[in-house]
Specification:
Blueprint (H helix, E strand, L loop, with lengths): L2 E6 L3 E7 L5 E8 L4 H11 L8 E6 L4 H6 L4 E2 L2 H12 L5 E5 L4 E5 L6 E4 L8 H10 L7 H5 L16 H10 L4 H21 L8 E4 L6 H11 L6 E2 L7 H8 L2 E4 L1 H10 L33 E7 L3 E8 L4 E8 L4 H16 L4 E8 L2 H8 L3 E2 L2 H12 L5 E5 L4 E6 L5 E7 L7 H10 L7 H4 L13 H13 L4 H20 L9 E4 L6 H11 L13 H15 L1
Parallel strand pairs: 1-4, 4-5, 6-9, 9-10, 12-15, 15-16, 17-20
Antiparallel strand pairs: 1-2, 2-3, 4-11, 6-7, 7-8, 12-13, 13-14, 17-18, 18-19
């Protein structure tokens, strides 16, 4: 009797058919786009020529349990045991396994004893989705990755901590003239270094190592693994059918006797990935934040300049002698903070003539270089500047939430606007503005329209905790005809729920919250954040997008007054 191994993962369905001697006869795989039962039926249909008689069935995978429950008497293995058993079949001499798939990655060691293992959790940074996302951003096909990467002549340094944040590094390298093949090889090394640091960590790398999963098709990754882990040619095994280890392991533990008709019927009754709905937010009005009020010229002729250089935007503000706002600018950093600042200064000169600044304060990720360039009076970190800016806008505040393009912060401050404690997320895009910007692009809209876009919507439940995985989930929801407004509102809820949970470690009971950053200008996000924090409202200000720059200016003034 033939044995059919079925691996229903978070992104793919894979089938392996073996004979009684454990020899693989054929394989089949496809992406399922959150419709695994539909794709499973397709696979059964395409294997029909081999399923003329009843077969034993083994099942594994993250989304496989519901099918196993329908198909009684079938065999079932959890992910890791299935990968171990399958790898022993495919690479019998292996003692450790690196398994990197589309949405999951694992390291398993001491497989001939009691296996020890670690997984990637909910992040795409160490998975195949990391490469798919970057290739999509570069306008290239994932199938061309290996061919392109073999043209590389150098390994540029890139971020591997988050698939979304890596985009910024790619833009920077492109602006520096780095060739695409070199960037692609740099991504391979970045991902494997991240895999080693966050997954393998202190586990024993017992040699030889079998490399399994869909990413085995990427020759750049194979090169990076050998160098990063110091493996010789005979110490890294990439077996035939490497991407089917889980399904092969399931086939080895197949049981029962099932016709193709029975399998098809069971797939029909399999529970599809279910996306529930969250309760709708209360009705809200249109965005009521007005434009910041400017004096357009310093009343006394004395003023201070504040600059906040972020990964996404560069903000400049001019503050008058009595802390009145004179001017503000929002500019795209575009990977060149010095150029953005020069552009802003040129605009000031064109509109105001030669202004003499009494103080200059600089903050943000590019503060050191720009601060030295300008001879700034104060060069301060983002936390201190955000606290000073928030206290300027709302003096009674004790907790500041700032959701930026690539990070989010929770800051507690005292009555003088000084920082007492803070938490910062700069490792994952899922709780940042980049995630929401990406979502709006996916539904063919712009983030500036979000308030009207989600009006009367009921939030869809977004299960993924990673921006890249959530994007795949959004594609699946759109394929199921879920309303785009419901999806976007679900993403808003996901961001605010994540931020509120993050803040619980720090925020006081009944906090007086000030919400800063670009997202603070949107009513739906303010209401959702307030709801998840359990407060009546969160305070904000027309200047919410410029609080870092305002804080920098104020800190510059304080410095020269000492």
């Amino acid at each position: 009797m033939y044995r059919l191994g079925i691996d229903i993962g978070t992104a793919t369905v894979k089938l392996v058919l073996t004979d009684e001697n454990k020899t693989i006869i054929t394989t089949w795989e496809t992406l399922h786009h959150n419709q695994p039962s539909t794709m499973l039926k397709m696979g059964i249909t395409e294997l029909g020529v081999f399923l003329t008689e009843a077969v034993a069935v083994g099942i594994t995978g993250a989304d496989a349990l519901s099918f196993h429950k329908v198909l009684k008497d079938s065999g079932f293995l959890e992910d890791v045991p299935a990968i171990v058993e399958g790898t022993k079949l495919l690479a019998s001499s292996a003692r450790s396994i690196m398994e990197i798939g589309s949405q999951g990655s694992r390291f398993i060691t001491q497989i001939d004893q009691v296996p020890q293992f670690a997984t990637n959790g909910h992040c795409a940074g160490g998975t195949g989705s990391f490469f798919e996302d970057q290739m999509s951003r570069l306008g290239l096909s994932i199938e061309d990755y290996s061919e392109l990467v073999e043209q590389a002549t150098s390994v540029p340094r890139l971020s591997g901590r988050c698939a979304v944040f890596a985009k910024t590094d790619i833009i920077h390298r492109q602006q520096e003239g780095v060739r695409t093949p070199d960037i692609l090889l740099g991504l391979c090394y970045a991902m494997i270094k991240n895999y080693k640091a966050t997954i393998v960590r202190d586990l024993l790398v017992d040699k030889p190592v079998a490399f399994c999963g869909g990413v085995t098709k990427n020759r750049g990754v194979i090169r990076a693994i050998k160098e990063v882990f110091g493996l010789q040619e005979d110490e890294l095994i990439v077996p035939a059918y490497a991407s089917f280890a889980g399904a092969a392991g399931a086939a080895l533990h197949a049981s029962g006797s099932f016709t193709s008709e029975r399998l098809f019927l069971a797939a029909d009754h399999m529970k599809e990935s279910h996306h529930g709905s969250l309760s709708a937010l209360p009705a809200f009005s249109e965005n009521t934040l007005s434009d910041p009020a400017c004096t357009q010229f310093p009343v006394s002729g004395k003023c201070a300049l504040g600059i906040d250089i972020g990964s996404t935007s560069t903000d400049l503000v001019i503050i008058g002698e009595h802390n009145e706002l004179v001017d503000y600018q929002y500019l795209r950093t575009a990977g060149n903070p010095e150029a953005a600042v020069r552009k802003g200064l040129a605009s000031i000169k064109e509109r105001f003539g030669e202004l003499v600044f009494q103080a200059v304060g600089v903050t943000g990720s590019g503060r050191e270089r720009v601060g030295r360039m300008l001879g700034a009076d104060a060069i301060r970190d983002e936390i201190t500047a955000q606290a000073a800016g928030a206290a300027h806008c709302v003096p009674e505040v004790d907790t500041v939430f700032e959701i930026g393009g690539q990070d989010s912060k929770v800051i507690t401050i005292d009555d003088l606007g000084c920082v007492t404690d803070f938490l910062m997320n700069d490792k994952c895009a899922a709780g940042t503005g980049r995630f929401l910007e990406m979502t709006m692009k996916r539904v063919e809209s712009e983030i500036e329209r979000i308030d009207t876009f989600v009006k009367d919507a009921k939030p869809a439940k977004i299960n993924s905790m990673c921006a890249v995985f959530a994007e795949s989930e959004i594609v699946g929801l759109l394929a199921q005809d879920i309303a785009p407004g419901d999806i976007v509102l679900g993403c808003v809820e996901s961001i605010c729920q994540r931020t509120a949970a993050f803040a619980q470690k720090l925020a006081p009971a009944n906090p007086k919250v000030f919400f800063s950053g670009g997202l603070a200008q949107f009513d739906v996000i303010k209401r959702s954040l307030a709801s998840h924090l359990g407060v009546k409202e969160v305070a904000t200000d027309p200047l919410c997008q410029y609080t870092g720059a305002i804080g920098a200016a104020i800190l510059g003034i304080r410095k020269i007054k000492r």
